[in-house]
Amino acid sequence: MSLIKALNGLLFPTRNLCYLCGERAYNLRDHICRDCYNFLDIVHREVDLNSPYIHRAYYTLVYNRYMREVIADYKFNGKSYLYKPLALLMLKTIEEKALIDEIDIIMYIPAHRRKEAKRGYNQAELLASYIGKLLDKEVSHSLIKTRYTRDQGKLSRLERMNNLKDSFKIRAREEIRGKTILLVDDIITTGTTIEEVGKILIKNQARKVYGLALTSSKSL
Ligand SMILES: [Zn+2]
User: Fold this and answer.
1) CA 93, CA 213: separation in Å to the nearest integer?
2) CA of 38 to the centre of ligand 1 (A)
3) What is the pTM of this model?
4) What distance in Å separates the CA atoms of residue 176 and residue 208, rounded to the nearest whole number?
């Protein structure tokens, strides 16, 4: 996938640096030093969405104070290279939940092109693309966001649902028909977004949709 290739040029210059703290270390695991690894709370937990469209949704890491910073760096502070260690961690959830054989294609929550242009990348797409590469699975770019919407976090539940209404579209239905899809996002906050996209996928004849996020701030 050319996106990943293009990004390789933006990666750290040496292999011995921790991607999270930038310190030199020789015992890196998934590009992360032992100190940073200790701050991560890896749980491979299910999110209770209670949605008819999402078969199961999982997240990899607890949204603790450390993860809040990691997410902010990844999404808002331009540290796009974090997709690599983060996707490697998410891969463990896929393995833990024995999803590898079941998944046909990988998709991601799209961003509106205006938002993506501002940020320079879509953080969910980077995760999905690298997971696809690691698993040797096709990544579909068929889902697009057609409306520019307000930030979901600041809205009530009803407002959130109205805010997202008709804001996603499938470009190529034949790509997803009859397929089991792994739908990737960086963070599940309320679950409204992943539910809305799941609905569109199922309505466009996807067979089954699994959700996977790096972390979740949704209260249990
Ligand atoms: Zn570190």
Assistant:
1) 10
2) 9
3) 0.91
4) 10
